[in-house]
Amino acid sequence: MSAFLKPCQFLAKHGLVRQQVKLFSVSARRFEGETVGFIGLGNMGRGMADNLVSKGHSVVLYDVVPEAVSALTAKGARGAASPAEVAAESDLIVTMLPNNAIVSNVYEGQDGIFSSVKSGAFLIDSSTVDPALSKDLAVKAAAAGCQFVDAPVSGGINAAAAGTLTFMVGANSDQEFAKAEMLLSKMGAKITHCGGVGTGGAVKICNNMLLAVSMIGTSEAMNLGIKLGLDPKLLAGILGSATGRCWSVDTYNPCPGVMENVPSSNDYKGGFGTALMTKDLGLAQDAATRAQAATPLGSLSHQIYRVMCNAGYAEKDFSSAFKFLREQDK
User: Which of 7, 92, 163, 248 is deepest in the core (most CB within 10 A)?
Assistant: First the structure.
C-alpha cells in the first residue's frame, strides 16, 4: 500500500492527480451498516430509491401513496408510517418532494424528520425549492446535530431509472459534499458542488427556466414545420444536428411519434408535470425579482405554463406545450 501511496502523494501535492485520487477515495467507501431513508416516491423519487435498493443499500421508505412504497418493499426495502419513523431509523435521509410547503412540513411538521432525527444524521433534499428554504432547513438541521445539503436533480424519469441523473449540490463544506457525493453517485452520473447550501437550488431554477423556454421554442418550431408540410421525424433529426439542437429536440421531443419512451408518445403521461414546471418558473421569477435580473422569456414562459394549467394540462408532462399550441391553432 505504501508503495502506491507515496507516488500518489507526490503527484497530489503538485496538483497533478487531485481529481483521480478523489474519485478513488470516494468510490472505495461504503455506507456499510448505515440505513438510508427515502421520502417521496413520485415519478423521479421512485427511480432514485429503486437504484439505492438494487445497489444493496438498506433503505426505509415513506410516501403518501402506499402503493408506491409497496412496489419497493417487494424488492427488499422497508416501509414506514411517517417521515418521523423514517428519521428514527435512518443514518442518511434523501427527500424528493414537490414544493416548498410539502418540504417544510416533512422536515418541520408534527410527524416530520426533525421530530425524531438522530444526532449526526446526514440530510439531502433533492426537491426543487426556494434556496432560502434550504438555508433555513440547514440552520435547523445543525441545531439538531445534523448536516444538511440541497441536491436538486436534472435528467428526467429515464435518467432517474437508469441512475444517470445530474445532481447540483449546495453544501457548506467540501467534507459535506464528499459525503453527499458518495450516496448520490448511486443515483447519478454527474455530481457537482455548486457552493454553499442553497446554491444547488439556485442552479436548478436557472436550468428549469431555460428548459421551459427551450421546450416552448421546440414546440413552436415543430408545429410550424408540420404546418409547412415537413415530416416531424425528419425535422427533428435535422434540428438535432443543426444549430437549434437542444435537449428538448434530441432527447425529449414534444411531438408525438418522433421518439419512443418519452411522455409525448404516451399521451403526455408521466414525466415532469406542467404544474411542477409552473412552480419552478415561479421560483425563478421570485428569485429574479429579488436579484433584479431581467428574465423576459422566463416570465413569458411562466405565463404560458400558468395558462396551460388552467386549461387542463396541470397533470400532463410539461412537453404538452406542443399539444397546447396545436390546439390554439384550431
Answer: 248
